[in-house]
Specification:
Two copies of one chain form a homodimer. By secondary structure, chain A is of the alpha/beta class. Helices cover 32% and strands 23% of the residues of chain A. Chains A, B: InterPro entries: DhaK_1 (IPR012736), DhaK_dom (IPR004006), Dihydroxyacetone_Kinase (IPR050861).
Chain lengths: 330, 330
Amino acid sequence: MRMLINVPETVVADALRGMAAAHPELTVDVERRVVVRRDAPVAGKVALVSGGGSGHEPLHGGFVGPGMLTAACPGEVFTSPVPDQMVRAAAAVDSGAGVLFVVKNYTGDVLNFEMAAELAEDEGIQVAKVLVDDDVAVTDSLYTAGRRGTGGTLFVEKIAGAAAEEGAPLERVEAIARRVNGRSRSFGVALSACTTPAKGSPTFDLPPGELELGVGIHGEPGRERRAMMTSREIADYAVDAVVEDLEPAGPVIALVNGMGGTPLLELYGFNAEVQRVLGERGVPVARTLVGNYVTSLDMAGCSVTLCEVDEELLRLWDAPVQTPALRWGR
Amino acid sequence: MRMLINVPETVVADALRGMAAAHPELTVDVERRVVVRRDAPVAGKVALVSGGGSGHEPLHGGFVGPGMLTAACPGEVFTSPVPDQMVRAAAAVDSGAGVLFVVKNYTGDVLNFEMAAELAEDEGIQVAKVLVDDDVAVTDSLYTAGRRGTGGTLFVEKIAGAAAEEGAPLERVEAIARRVNGRSRSFGVALSACTTPAKGSPTFDLPPGELELGVGIHGEPGRERRAMMTSREIADYAVDAVVEDLEPAGPVIALVNGMGGTPLLELYGFNAEVQRVLGERGVPVARTLVGNYVTSLDMAGCSVTLCEVDEELLRLWDAPVQTPALRWGR
């Protein structure tokens, strides 16, 4: 146990208290576990609500703010939030223009957001849903039927969030979110397992000197396990997996994401290799983001997400965003 | 070895190539190892140049941009950059208004920046220097005579950078930098050792279940080693160490910093405890920053830095900043 915690039972509540103290621009309901941008509901604006298990920070709470999510619902570590949280979030942020639920494709999240959508609609809130399933590594996995939702979530939340901020109506925000998910693909690699507070030991067995190619963000198995590879070899493997599936015809935005335990120095070096492979494959890169955005607690490793963009999606990506983890423009 | 690298020899160059690709707003000279904001020199503006060993990212390269550093010189991992880099950086950014060197108090950095200052002055560049020595853990340590420079560097670079951006002359920027360092104190805690690429194994021996109280950002020994403590106990120890030394009479800005390997979920939880202790000690908190800013590669752990601010320093802290790692306002 090398964790900076009190007891496993209070990890999420403690983090929310700490988040509230650091970010007065957010309203954090620690007891009910809802993070909301302070000025919500914003008159006439479609609201975006997401959520999922904790342990992937800054996803989703760190993406709440003008230009991105309107609210986030954190569950227990690696555990879906409950419908009650989602309904409360929807009620807190709905201006009458409707709410888009952004749902990563894990069975628990899908079921709970579905139930929440029904309950919210019973309360007179118009709800649309978009499922994020960008991970090309495997189809059907631990916790998932179909593909898993990982790094593509950041693109969906940023780009659809920008459309909502501009005043697009619900069906348009939903359509943009679907388009972004449809043009996003991810592939993750673990150099170590992660340790959940409740378990206190690594969640899966990955001997030193081996890596898991195609790992999920909860340590779910990927495509194969191999002896340690270089940054260059990992980039070849991961980028090829993404590009072969996405088959981009135009420019992409690249997210070179750390799983939590890999230093930024290494992530930047890995980005150099990712850019090299993209260049060799003839894929133009419009924007690049490097850092820890969709993490797996202290897992060492990385993921690559590409989102193919047209002029509109790139403009929405560049639009101002003011959240704890992503902020630019104004 | 769970590192995302090619070979240890190219880690810094690889990272700089990846940084260049991700940040077109910076000019990155990979060969000469200088990171410069693209629009430098800025007419009439005092330039801020810092640098130090790599492995502490985003420090310093991630702090280059409008409102903060004008240039950064990364050395090898945990190794001072050489005077030649610093002179090149100074020459690249000097507008004629002079250059402030921000130097963390490690023997190698201090000597090299001193030599660079002499060389730059020989080239007709006006140079001032500020030494950052905010770490209260120990006096005289591995690599250091006096106190070590750690998290306070972020405050010096941000606040003096804002003054320079506003057009303050060199002696005023230098005076503000000294004032910030004089009002900043830090204390760090390691829950694990870090692993440098060159060594490939932990840099010091910290058995699981023990922590190092007062650790330096290169894993230098601290005040004492103890059996694992809770987040609450660690906050009590670290904040008290800082507050007893700083004796703040007014509000502070709090940096709750991750060493690299500790998840953001845990850092936010730790922040809740830090805020609790500060409340109990009667120290008002004006602003709080939580995240990985001054790291030690993959070390698990955290540090607390407090900077006591008056109205002017707080205004300069809030002033716009546009760097890879720190950005707000406009």
